[in-house]
Amino acid sequence: MPVGSGLTVDFGKWASSLGSEGNYTQVQMNYSRGYWFNFLPFYHMGIRAQYAVNKKLALNYWLVNGTNQVEPTNGFKDEMFGFVLTPVKSLSWTVNYYFGQEGPDTTPVAVCGPVPVQPGLCFDKVSPAPDGKLHIFDTYATWQTTPRLTLQLEGDYVIQRVWASAGPDQSSAPKHTTGGAGWAKYQLTPRTYVAGRGEYLSDRGGLFSGVTEALKELTATYDFTLGSGSEMKYEYRRDWSNQPIFLTSQQNVFSREQNTVTVGAIWWFGRKQGPW
Fold this sequence. Notes:
With 276 residues, the protein is mainly β. It has one helix at residues 35-39, and strands at 7-15, 43-52, 57-64, 78-88, 91-100, 106-108, 123-125, 134-144, 149-160, 175-189, 192-204, 213-227, 230-241, 246-247, 254-255, 257-267.
C-alpha cells in the first residue's frame, strides 16, 4: 500500500517468525532444530502488516487465530507486535512480543441431536472457559562479522496461565519457560562450512516438556554442497538435562543425557526462495 515509506499487508497462513530458526533445512546452519524451534509456534493464520519506517527500521503487527491452528478455538484474537532493526547491512535485530489466549471455549462431543450432523462437527460450550493468557517475548540478532563468519544470538521468555485468576480448580499458577541459544558459522570454502549451536531452556512448570527441568544441548555441523539444489550435513549433537527424560535401550529406564550422530541428505528444487 502506498502509505508513507511503504505498508505491506497480507492475509493467510504463514510460518511463524518467533524464533530465529526456520522450517527449511537447506537455509539453516544445523541439520537438527533446537528446543526453541520446537517449542515456539510453527505457524499462524490471520492478517499481518509491516510498515517500513525507513531503510533501517520496520514495524510488524499480526492479528491471528492462535498458535499452530487455522480455525479459532475461542473468541479471542492473538496479537503480535514487533520490529526489525538493520543499523548496518551486516547486522539485523528482531524483537517480537506475542499476546494470546490459547484455552478453548468449546469441546467436541460424540452425539449430536436431534438433527444429524457430520461427525467431528458437534461441540459443547466449556463453562467456565479458561481465560489465562500467553505471553511470548522473543528476540534474536544476526551479525555477519566477516565474509566468512556469521554469529547469531536468541533470547526468549514465555509465560502462560490456564486462568487469569483463581479458576474452578484453583490452578492459576503461571508456567515459565526462559533461555536462549547461540550459533556460529564459518565458511571454510565456497562449498563447505562448519557450524555450532549451544542452547539452554529452563522449563518451570513443564510448559514445554511436561516436567520442570533445565534442558541443554550442543550441536556441531559440517556442511558440504554437492551441487545446485543438493547438499550433505554431518552432525553431532549432545543433549542433557537435570531430569532423566531421554529414552534408553531399556523399557521405562530414562537417562539424563543423549548423544546423536546424524547424516542428512538434502535435495530441493523450484524457484521459491526464502521462508514462506
